[in-house]
Amino acid sequence: MKEDYENISKFGIQFKHLISAPAPVGRILNYVKLIGRGVLKHKNGNRDLYLKDNIGYAWTTEFMVGLGLAFYIEDEHTNIYPVYLTPKGKELFELIKGSSNFDENQNPSKCREQLMRFSKQGFLKFESIFKASVVCKNLCKYMANNSKNTFKKSSFMDEYFGFFKKYYTDEDYIYSAGKGATTGDNRMPSLIQLCSFFNCLRVENGYYVFDYDSLNKQKNDIQFIPVDTSLETKLANEDEHNEIIVKDLVEKYGIDGTVAREIVTRNSSVQEIFRNNLIARYGCKCAICSKDIDTVLVASHIKPASECNVLDKANCENGLLLCALHDKLFDRYLISFDFTTGKLIYSKELEGKLAEYQLNDELTLDSKYMTEERKTFLMQHNMAFYERNK
Question: For residue 171, with 0-12 CB atoms within 10 Å meaning exposed, 13-18 middle and 19 or more buried, which class applies?
Fold first, then answer.
């Protein structure tokens, strides 16, 4: 007897949420942390991996909806929507929020080792969420309806995608050989990688062999947050939360007033916005040595916070995420970075001692940091550096 596939409309999801990629496992986990911090947004069609303006890679955020980890509400008045964790997503976030960034390579083995090493409970929670998802349930029903768990590697992704496109959209999908990657090849790797990540898939002699019994053992239903009018209004209001905080502080204390400098310097909300934006845009690692332990990283202002107005305090272009050691060196003008080239410059006190401080003469800031606005802030830091190291 044939099994009916999931009625995705009852979950409030679309076909694009069911089969979407590329969404490496590591990126999914990293996005869970970003969403949990309240900094990730979704924009239909976005393909920028560098999280410009905190906007996530669209295929990844869409696939996370299908997995039951996250959701967003489209608004006809804007094309950018805040992303929120579902209850299960929040449970996973609490288990992994203190981890370093996860590896986003197509081979998920390193990412699995990272998660298992940091939190075995987090791995098990993620596994239970995946196996309870409509994504996994449909895969199991596809195997049951075809009476097999072994599929030819060269054609499976295209056939699977084509079947569900027809099932959910009633649109025929025609494979076009010789025209680069097919839609099936584009959209299916995330599912393949997740099955591999949870040790439910192996490749033998050109075939995918799925562990049907392991994939099908999770019976509990997926949980989505029901959307009602009051919730939709609440979420829409939260979209501009960070901007409202900053604007409110400006209105209360002024941009340049003495009161603002005394109070806002210590304001945790502005510092949190500043730090979260740095992490969202450049990753959770030191810009100099790449240390990636969240708790030892400091959001360091290039132009000192004590000399900044409210807007500059919150502007991540006026900052670098640094480990505690390099933050101290940078803050005390023992090091700086040339504002035209990004090359390390250092004081006489560090001559002959660079290696002791995990520095070297060839060190240069990654080009992604060298935006025009950050160069302006670095120029000011350079001037202060040379003034103090005459």
Answer: exposed
Structure-token pair, residue 257: 């007033």
Residues with Cβ within 8 Å of 82's Cβ and at least 6 positions away in sequence, in order, are: 40, 41, 42, 72, 235, 238, 239
3-class DSSP state for residue 80? strand
Helix (H) and strand (E) counts in the chain: 18, 11
Q: Which run of H or E residues covers position 150?
A: strand 150-152
Alpha-carbon span 52 to 63, nearest angstrom: 20
The whole-chain average pLDDT of the chain stands at 82
Give me the sign of the Cα torsion angle 190, 195, 199, 205: negative
44-74 pLDDT per residue, tens: 988 888 888 899 999 899 999 999 999 988 8
- Bridge partners for 156 per DSSP: none
pTM, two decimals, is: 0.57
299: phi then psi, degrees, rounded to nearest 5: -80, 105
